[in-house]
Structures are given as structure tokens and as C-alpha cells.
Amino acid sequence: MKNTRQKEIILDAVNHLDNHPTADEIYLFLKKDHPRLSLATVYRNLNQFALEGKIRKVSVPGDSDRFDAVLDVHEHFYCEKCGLIHDVSIPGLEAQLLNHPTMKITDYKLMLFGECESCRAH
Ligand SMILES: [Zn+2]
Ligand SMILES: [Zn+2]
Fold this sequence. Notes:
2 domains; binds zinc ion; 5 helices
């Protein structure tokens, strides 16, 4: 498979599996149609896309990295029960942090932890 084609299908998969898939999930999803694709290739391309700003890489302490096709400003909530990542928007947060009165904050990574709506209902 050509490199550019490989990149395309991996990027498409991140968009398709829209709930913050892991590299493994992306690999398993693509493997059916592209049996010669390797997990290492998927992982390498995902990290490259994240560096290029095409996707977001979401690091979870003690769990696999997730990949996010949504580039708009939003924060992440990690459910400690089901392990799913949910998008949370906190209006005004970015502006507040980046306009901190004393510190020059250039970037931040916020991860919220707890129990998601569907886990709480059970
Ligand atoms: Zn949950
Ligand atoms: Zn997200």
C-alpha cells in the first residue's frame, strides 16, 4: 500500500471512530479491509498526525493514548468506570487561562475524572 493512501485511511478511521479511539481500536477497525497494515504503522502515523495538528492526542494516566479528530477547543472527561472519554466544553476557560494575570500560560492539558452520565444511571 502506498504511504499516502495509508495515511488517508488512518486519518479517515479517526474521523469515523468518533469517540476518542485508541491506536488499537483504529488498528482493529482497519485490519478487516487492510490486513497488511501493522499496528506500528498505525501508531506511528497517529503520532505524526498529532504533531502536525491534524488530530489531537489525548493522554490518559495509566491507560492508552486516545486520538481525537475534533480540533475545536474542548476538554476531556475520563470515566473511571467505563474508561470512555467524553468531550466537555467549559466556556471561557481557555481565555481565562491564557490571560492569567501573572503567569504566561501558552498551553494546557486538562483531564477531568469521575463517573459518566450513563454509568451513574446504572
Ligand atoms: Zn462511564
Ligand atoms: Zn475530544
